[in-house]
Amino acid sequence: MNTKIKLDPSKTALLTMDVQKGVLGVVPGAEKILPNCVKVVEAARKNQFTVLHVGIGFEPGYPEVGPRASTFLMVKERGLFVKGSESAEIHPSLVKAGETIIYKQRYSAFSENSLNMILRAKGIENLVLFGISTSGIVLSTLRQAFDLDYKCVVIKDACLDRDEEVHRVLTEKVFTAQATVLTAREFEEQAAGE
């Protein structure tokens, strides 16, 4: 679905997802997508899109992690992603003072938080997505956003997965059924109306 897009800035939000110091510290090679992430964030700001940052963030003591939350038990054991800790910080190259940061405790950016309420309150209809990992937060968020009737754009070279083949299949075959998939450069050009 790599077609020309026209996104009304007043109805479009960029979601940076899980591009946090703690994620970058445990996912090998993750820093290689940062230049594309920065390019997308700058293009979104320049074109007056709403920029929101979504990341993993738990309360001290991890009350959100029960005994069946297997993936997150490992996070709890390692003491990662407590709100206010260094591992929970959005990468400083992406976040600007005054921008909203929303925390979630499961995979989807919409998991048990105020994201959908904030988007609806701002009149947002279109979402531009990128993050780590392609098979985690990006896939989960895209599916839920599509079900919530948002028009979505995924920036494939600002996403990363531990498994390159999974990333390729998702961005080339799966996501295209529910989103426009672009590179950071294509997004930059199209957001500017080129």
Task: Explain the overall architecture.
It is a single chain. By secondary structure, the protein is an alpha/beta fold. The radius of gyration is 16 Å and the shape is globular. The chain contains seven helices and six strands. The model has no long low-confidence stretch (mean pLDDT 95). It has helices spanning 21-26, 34-46, 70-78, 115-121, 134-147, 164-174, 184-191; strands at 12-17, 50-56, 100-104, 126-131, 151-155, 180-182. Helix 2 (34-46) runs parallel beside helix 7. It has one domain: Rossmann fold, CATH 3.40.50.850. Helices cover 35% and strands 16% of the residues.
Question: How much of the polypeptide forms β-strand, as a percent range?
Answer: 15-25%
Q: Structural class from helices and strands?
A: alpha/beta
Lateral arrangement of strands in the main beta sheet = 3-2-1-4-5-6
Unreliable stretches (pLDDT < 50, length at least 5) are: none
The beta-strand count equals 6
CATH architecture: 3-Layer(aba) Sandwich
In the CATH scheme, what's the topology name?
A: Rossmann fold
**Radius of gyration from CA coordinates:** 16 Å
Shape: globular
Termini separation comes to 18 Å
Counting copies of identical and different chains, the oligomeric state is single chain
State the share of residues found in helices, binned by percent: 25-40%
CATH superfamily: Isochorismatase-like
Order of helices and strands: EHHEHEHEHEHEH
CATH class wording: Alpha Beta
* Global mean pLDDT: 95
Number of domains: 1
In DSSP terms (H or I, runs of 4 or more residues), the helix count works out at 7
Note the main sheet. Answer: 6 strands, parallel
